[in-house]
């Protein structure tokens, strides 16, 4: 394939509506032309978490204007789109259906094919849009609100799961601990802001499964330990103690993520690593993992900060790279489904 391909990507798996346009020239790394995003975080904050029905309704309101915004930013007519990609799963069923339904309808109206992609594949390929793109093979640490996984990535569509969380995801641990500390939703950024003023050694929190010998994670026990520590502090907890507990929580999560990543690097012998998903935006994780990888001569790659959390660019990119690799079947029959639960290794 040597021709130019314009791929529109639609993300709607959770609480962000994302739309983006990428251009792929032959086998070259696709380029991001424009992306637009609407986060529903403010809307869900009042409820302390994502309300699926509200999420679906908001995706419906946002997806068309965001698509128009992207096309206007690039200055192309929608008839120039070659493929319309969407997140097929995993995620909230109703939310996924909005993006998939819109994408397939738009594709049909344009007489173009559509392609559903895996949300986590989008996350793990997203560093290809950065100024320092990786090369295959690499180790991927996927740390989002719903997933914590270590994957051996051989190439596009070649993903081997090495280990994953047996209960809460790392992002969930951040979010739930933040909620206990009375911080808003999503909790990760808020908790890490508070942690900056705290002393991580003030509390001795567990590092679950640190020495389990495998590459699995567990964060549910940590959340319970944070709850117990917070209760002990009582209702009139001072600001410094809250900051200390936030710092200790962040340190416990980061320690486990770094230790297991290093173990996976050793086990696989891989020399490159990608960190993707919302928690990949965490400054302490970047600092600790960066230092550990530098000591071992491992090249570490991240998506651009604004593409760490959910976005349409990673969806368009994953579809473009699938098509370039001959590992994606774009469909023109107007039929589609979504897969709220979908292991990446099956994608
Ligand atoms: O990848 P993502 O946007 O959505 C999912 O696919 O889940 O990840 C969202 C998660 C949330 O749990 C959020 O609290 C966490 O990423 N997060 C962070 C930071 N920014 C986002 N966690 C820690 N530190 C951050 N700076
Ligand atoms: Zn995500």
Task: Describe the model.
This protein is α/β, with parallel strands linked by helices. It has ten helices and ten strands. The strands form two sheets. Strands 3-2-1-4-5 form a five-stranded mixed sheet, sandwiched between helices. Strands 8-7-6-9-10 form a five-stranded mixed sheet, sandwiched between helices. Strand 9, helix 9 and strand 10 form a beta-alpha-beta unit. The model has no long low-confidence stretch (mean pLDDT 96).
Question: Main traits of this protein?
Answer:
five-stranded mixed beta sheet, 347 residues, Nucleotidyltransferase, domain 5, binds 5'-O-[(R)-(carboxyoxy)(hydroxy)phosphoryl]adenosine, 10 helices, binds zinc ion, alpha/beta, 2 domains
Helical coverage, percent range: 40-55%
Mean pLDDT: 96
Can you tell me the CATH topology of the largest domain? Nucleotidyltransferase, domain 5
Bin the strand percentage.
Answer: 15-25%
Q: Give me the side-by-side strand order of the main sheet.
A: 3-2-1-4-5
List the uncertain runs.
Answer: none
**In the CATH classification, which architecture of the largest domain applies?**
2-Layer Sandwich
What bound compounds does this protein have?
5'-O-[(R)-(carboxyoxy)(hydroxy)phosphoryl]adenosine, zinc ion
CATH homologous superfamily caption of the largest domain: ATPase, nucleotide binding domain
Q: How many helical stretches? A: 10
Query: How many domains, in number, for the residues?
Result: 2
Shape, principal axes of CA atoms? globular
The value of Rg in angstroms is: 20 Å
CATH C-level category of the largest domain: Alpha Beta
Cα distance, first to last residue? 23 Å
The largest sheet is: 5 strands, mixed
Total strand segments:
10
Q: How are helices and strands ordered from N to C? A: EEEHHEHEHEEEHHHHEHEH
Class inferred from helices and paired strands: alpha/beta
């Amino acid at each position: 394939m040597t021709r130019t391909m314009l791929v529109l990507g639609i993300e709607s798996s959770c609480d962000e509506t994302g739309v983006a346009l990428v251009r792929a020239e032959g086998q070259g790394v696709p380029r991001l032309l424009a992306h637009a995003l609407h986060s529903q975080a403010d809307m869900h904050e009042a409820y302390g978490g994502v309300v699926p029905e509200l999420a679906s309704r908001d995706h419906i309101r946002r997806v068309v204007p965001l698509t128009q915004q992207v096309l206007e930013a690039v200055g192309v007519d929608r008839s120039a789109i070659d493929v319309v990609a969407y997140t097929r799963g995993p995620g909230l069923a109703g939310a996924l259906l909005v993006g998939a339904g819109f994408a397939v309808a738009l594709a049909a109206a344009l007489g173009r094919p559509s392609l559903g992609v895996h949300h986590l594949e989008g996350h793990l390929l997203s560093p290809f849009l950065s100024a320092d793109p990786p090369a295959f093979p690499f180790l991927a640490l996927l740390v989002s609100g719903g997933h914590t996984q270590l994957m051996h990535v051989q190439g596009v569509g070649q993903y081997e799961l090495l280990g994953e969380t047996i209960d809460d995801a790392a992002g969930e641990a951040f979010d739930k601990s933040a909620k206990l500390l009375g911080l808003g939703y999503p909790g990760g950024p808020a908790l890490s802001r508070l942690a900056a003023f705290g002393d991580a050694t003030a509390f001795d929190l567990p590092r679950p499964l640190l020495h389990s010998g495998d590459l699995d994670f567990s964060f549910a026990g940590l959340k319970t330990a944070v709850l117990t520590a917070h209760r002990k502090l009582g209702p009139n907890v001072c600001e410094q103690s809250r900051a200390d507990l936030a710092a200790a929580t962040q340190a416990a999560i980061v320690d486990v993520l770094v230790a297991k990543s290093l173990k996976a690097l050793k086990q696989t012998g891989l020399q490159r690593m990608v960190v993707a998903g919302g928690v990949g935006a965490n400054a302490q994780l970047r600092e600790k993992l960066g230092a550990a990888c530098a000591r071992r001569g491992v090249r570490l790659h991240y998506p651009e900060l604004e593409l760490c959390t959910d976005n349409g660019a990673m969806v368009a990119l994953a579809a473009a790279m699938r098509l370039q690799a001959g590992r994606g079947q774009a469909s023109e029959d107007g039929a589609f489904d979504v897969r709220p639960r979908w292991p990446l290794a099956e994608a």
